[in-house]
Design brief:
Helix content is 79%, strand content 0%. The protein is mostly helical and 321 residues long.
């Protein structure tokens, strides 16, 4: 009798465990779907920050969007939905698909007011409005966030996005002023570096090369990604040359050429290096370097630029007309 009761209890335990299996697998499935979304997003961030191409659109972001979409489709009641929407919105933003990013942030804000990402989603929605040149919406969203938050980092990011409005509108002098205000107010080293970088870019559009060189020198003292460090260094070298300081430009470009992280940009660096040599009166060395670009990087934009600059140099050499 006792043995029969034990066997019956064991059977009930097994049946109960089997009944719970679908729930366990379901939980694992939607967690795995969210894990894939987050993993792909983090990979996208890593690839973007390591790239020297400012227009890079890592496909890991696309994978994050796809896995997030599967999570929402298969498990619409999952507790990970607001997290997935947030990561999908940021992925779309970095892919340059601002309308799609905007919709994800709007969906998160409309349906999940208790999400821990709620305030930051307001920031990203404002950034989408900036890129879409929706000035009224951008200003309202970002100024509203500034009024509501006491988070200094979030405040600095909102101020940065407002400064970006002027840059997108091609009001470069005002953009430079606004980015410098952000640099004066923030204590976040990452935002500080980006603010000086954007101020330098804005000044470059105005052909205010000494100001560019100064802003970018400040940026390079801060915490920059690999991508921004290359861009700031290269643009500063151009500004130094345009300011009549080709020797300093040459030294900076020499460091970039030796840095293995920037191997994919060697053709671009070598062309600018040749132009600094030209401005120093070292014409033959400049021509040799441009020839090296043409030979080493055939059928590339860098080779085309090298041909063009070579022609310009030859045009102004005595006896070459």
């Amino acid at each position: 009798m006792m043995g029969r009761r034990i066997r019956r209890s064991a059977c009930f335990a097994v049946l109960a465990a089997l009944a719970l299996l679908p729930l366990a697998f379901s939980g694992c499935s939607y967690f795995n779907a969210f894990y894939n979304t987050k993993h792909n997003f983090v990979e996208g961030e890593r690839e973007r920050e390591r790239s020297t191409d400012p227009k890079a659109k890592p496909q890991s972001y696309r994978k994050a969007v796809e896995s997030g979409g599967r999570l929402i489709e298969k498990y619409p009641d999952s507790r990970y939905i607001p997290d997935a929407l947030f990561l999908m919105g940021k992925s779309y933003f970095w892919l340059g698909e601002y309308h799609k990013a905007k919709r994800k942030f709007e969906e998160l804000l409309a349906n999940y007011p208790d999400s821990p990402d709620y305030s930051e989603a307001r920031l990203w929605l404002g950034k989408c409005y900036v890129q879409l040149k929706m000035r009224t919406e951008a200003t309202s969203t970002l100024r509203g966030l500034l009024a509501d938050t006491d988070d200094p980092t979030l405040s600095s990011q909102a101020q940065f996005a407002l400064a970006e409005l002027y840059y997108v509108d091609e009001a470069y002098f005002r953009a430079e002023e606004e980015f410098l205000k952000v640099a004066q107010q923030t204590t976040d080293p990452k935002i500080l570096g980006e603010a000086f970088w954007r101020a330098g870019e804005a000044a470059y559009h105005e052909k205010r090369y000494p100001a560019v060189a100064e802003h970018l020198a400040q940026a390079l003292r801060q915490d920059l990604t690999t991508s921004l460090r290359f861009q700031a260094s290269f643009l500063r070298a151009q500004a130094l040359r345009e300011s009549g300081r080709p020797q300093e430009a040459l030294a900076l470009l020499g460091k970039l050429i030796k840095d293995k992280r920037y191997f994919d940009e060697h053709g671009k660096i070598m062309v600018e290096h040749a132009l600094s040599l030209r401005d120093l009166g070292r014409t033959q060395e400049a021509l040799e370097e441009l020839d090296a670009v043409i030979e080493s990087f055939p059928r590339t934009p860098e080779a085309s630029q090298a041909y063009y600059e070579r022609g310009r140099i030859l045009l102004h050499l005595p006896g070459e007309r």
